[in-house]
Design brief:
Elements lengths: L1 H23 L7 H22 L7 H24 L5 H8 L2 H13 L5 H22 L3 H8 L10 H24 L5 H26 L6 H25 L5 H9 L1 H12 L6 H19 L5
Helix pairs in contact: 1-10, 1-11, 1-12, 2-3, 2-9, 2-10, 3-8, 3-9, 4-8, 4-12, 4-13, 5-6, 5-8, 6-13, 11-13
Length: 303
């Protein structure tokens, strides 16, 4: 079962990347990131209701409040990620965003003085080299070569520091959320914490909808909103599968690297369905980071 759940998490989270990209990439919709927050909030709210009323998960205002800082870090990172999808290829943004595990490892090393074996140190180094390398390749690419390789995708992205900054900020906030999560979950039930996260996301989704509808007078077009809700379903399903996959601690060393490789699937889907074309230098740096991410997943027990 752990293997099936791990593969489901990989497919769902990479599917979430794909449909979130489709739902947020139109440059003429400046509010697509908040519409995406609304979509995820609605779907997660429905799942939270199922967990509470059918699954019997206990939830209280105290749990919501204690988990609130973690929830806001995760939600903030995802919102920035949705903004970034308007400015950069999914093939580039997904590996950068998914490098947060390396940042968590470095933070744990500094904050708690935990030890890392040689494989973990090498993995962190590979992720850092890959992410920094992606930045250099992306920013210093010749404009004509960039335009030529983007012709078939029908979407062109200008060279922009913001395009790289947004997924990097996602990485930092997601790493901070993961780090805080590990501390808070020492005193909270995992199922209750997950429901608290989903209810907080629901609240953020409602606030986003009200802001867009009644303040910004934004239009919600079914054709444009559909990919966002599909992405939200994949995101929620991936989170559910992930929780139960890693709960099987006997197989954690095998499930973690499978799930960690979802950014590779995201790159594959972007190549097939979005027709994104990158240079060999991009793929070299992406491959370097991806190897580090998978190795980190394989040796995720730091200490």
């Amino acid at each position: 079962m752990w293997f099936i759940l791990s593969v489901i998490a990989l497919l769902c989270w990479s599917g979430s990347d794909l449909f979130s990209k489709i739902g947020c990439r139109d440059a003429d919709d400046k509010h697509s990131h908040l519409k995406m927050v609304t979509a995820v909030g609605v779907v997660m709210g429905l799942h939270a209701a199922y967990e509470i009323f059918i699954g019997g998960v206990a939830i209280s205002f105290d749990v919501l409040l204690r988990y609130l800082p973690v929830s806001l870090l995760y939600i903030g990172s995802m919102t920035l990620g949705y903004v970034g999808l308007r400015y950069i290829e999914l093939s580039v943004s997904s590996p950068i965003c998914n490098s947060s595990g390396a940042l968590v490892a470095i933070t744990s090393l500094i904050a708690f003085g935990v030890s890392m074996n040689g494989y973990q140190i090498a993995a962190v180094a590979l992720v850092c080299i890959g992410v920094i390398g992606i930045g250099f390749v992306e920013y210093f690419e010749d404009d004509e070569l960039r335009a030529a390789r983007q012709d078939k995708s029908n979407y062109r992205y200008a060279k922009s520091a913001l395009a790289l900054l947004l997924p990097l900020l996602y990485c930092v906030l997601d790493a901070a959320g993961t780090f805080a999560d590990s501390l808070v979950l020492e005193t909270l039930d995992e199922d209750s914490a997950n429901v608290a996260y989903e209810l907080t996301f629901l609240l953020c989704g409602v606030v986003s909808f009200l802001w867009l509808k009644f303040v910004k007078k934004a239009k919600f077009l079914p054709k444009r909103e559909a990919p966002k809700y599909i992405g939200a379903i994949f995101e929620t399903a991936g989170q559910f599968a992930y929780i139960y996959a890693i709960s099987d601690t006997k197989h954690l060393a095998m499930s973690a690297p499978i799930i960690s490789a979802y950014c590779l699937a995201s790159v594959l889907w972007s190549r097939i369905f979005l027709k994104e074309r990158l240079s060999w230098k991009h793929y070299l740096m992406i491959g370097t980071a991806a190897i580090g991410i998978v190795v980190l997943g394989l040796f995720d027990e730091i200490g």
